[in-house]
Amino acid sequence: PDRSILHFPKQAPSVWQIFFTDWLQSQRLEGGVDKKLNIVEEAKAAGRAYHKLSDQDRADLGARAKVLKENYERELAIWKRTLTPADVERENAFRTAQRKSGKSRQKNINDPNAPKRPLSPYFLYLQAMRADQQMAKQVFGGVTAPIQQSVLAAEKWRSMGEAEKRPYLEQAKNAKIMYEAERKIYENTESLNKGPPTSFFIYPG
User: Please, which contacts does 48-52 make with residues 24 or more away whose CB atoms are closer than 8 Å?
Assistant: First the structure.
């Protein structure tokens, strides 16, 4: 594909974009509806004014930007739910081609409706350990830095024997079986929702 056919929700504006939009509106009000603005010059003037903003003004703009970002993220999540596997496959093919040609760095998108991939045995172990304070204390001791905790957890996992790892290996195995079954059901359901090809229909003469 040479272009994306998806229409993503409009991204939330940054603090600067909100300020500049307000600036342009104020300049139009001052000059009247017939006033033509030089965007380049207005951007320079707005930039100078932006750097002189008080901390309170910046905080107010930041609060507005935060609300707009939260609204955008909710809208994006709802929109993603409308995507079909075919939409995701087509978009990812486009993004892959764009990355290979050096035109974009966009990552592929995930199908939000598809079953979630199961955790690996190691991550199941991490999950169990973080839920068990005594177990976490044995591994981490008094270490609280996330990076150092990751190192200690990895070292502990490597030192564990087969019997210690077995519960997590079995749990991961069962989760994978369930995931594969759910994925097939999901793919079959999506295939049925598309309906049969038109060649399968018999039209009256």
Answer: 49/23, 50/16, 50/19, 50/20
Burial (0-12, 13-18, 19+ Cβ within 10 Å), 52: exposed
Q: Could you give the maximum distance between any two Cα atoms of the chain, in Å?
A: 81
Token pair belonging to 59: 């905080």
Q: Are 61 and 19 in contact (CB under 8 A)?
A: yes
pLDDT digits (tens, 9 = 90+) for 131-180: 999 999 999 998 999 999 999 999 999 999 999 999 999 999 999 999 99
Supply the pTM of this predicted model: 0.58
Rg (CA), the chain: 27
